Amino acid sequence: MVGASIALVGCGGADGDGGASGAASSSADPQLVTEISSAASAAWSALNAARLDPTDTAKVDAAKAAFAGPALRSVDEILTQYGVTGQVSRTNDDTPSTIVPDPTSVALLTDGRASIVVCEIDTNILIQPGVGEGGSDVVVDDDVSAHRIQMTFTEVDGVWLEWSGKVLDTYADATSCPD
Predict the structure, then answer these.
(1) SS3 for 1-64, per residue?
(2) CA–CA separation, 6 and 150 (whole Å)
(3) How far apart are CA 179 and CA 165, in angstroms?
C-alpha cells in the first residue's frame, strides 16, 4: 500500500545505515520516551501530509525536515516519484492512516541513536488524478494493512530526526497490530 513510513521503501536493515545499531540501554529515561514517541509521530505525520498534497512545497519541506541520512534520501525519492507520476494519496475516511508508538519499546542505543517500535495503520488510497474516463480519478492502490516497524532516530541540533526504519511484521487486511 502507500504507507507513510520510510520502512516501507527499503530503508531498513542491519547495515550501518539501516535499522537500529548497538545494544540498547535496559530502561529509557522518561524524557527520552516522550521525545522519541513525539518524533516518531511528527515524522510520520509530516510525510503523510506531503503525500496527501505533494505539490505543496511547505508540506514537502516539512516532511524532509523530519528525516536525516538514509531516511531523508528515501523521503526525497518518494516525493520525487509522486511529482513525476502526478499521483497523490487520499485519506480513507472510514479508517484514516495513523501510527501508534509503543513507548515501552524506546531504547537508547550505544551509538547515541534511539529506537522505537510503532504500529502503522496503512489505509491511504493511492490515486492517479484525472486520468480516468471523463477526467475522473483512478485508484491505483487501496489495500489496507498494518505494519510493526522499528524506527531509529538520530539527534541533530537538539532535534530527533528519523534515520531509518525496519519493517518487523506486516498484517494484510488489518487495521491494527496484534499484541
Answers:
(1) CCCCCHHHHCCCCCCCCCCCCCCECCCCCHHHHHHHHHHHHHHHHHHHHHHHCCCCHHHHHHHH
(2) 10
(3) 20
Tally the residues of the chain: 179
CA 60, CA 54: separation in Å to the nearest integer?
6
> In which element (H, E) is residue 80 found?
helix 69-85
Contact 145, 169 (CB under 8 A): no
In this structure, are residues 151 and 57 in contact, taking their beta carbons and an 8 Å threshold? no
Say if strands 88-90 and 125-128 run parallel, antiparallel, or are unpaired. antiparallel
Crossing angle between the packed helical segments 30-52 and 69-85, to the nearest 10 degrees: 20
User: Are the beta carbons of 71 and 46 closer than 8 angstroms?
Assistant: no
pLDDT in tens, 34-78: 999 999 999 999 999 999 999 999 999 999 999 999 999 999 999
Q: Does the domain made of 6-172 have the CATH classification 3.40.50.1100? A: no
Q: Can you name the residues that pair with 147 across neighbouring β-strands?
A: 120, 170
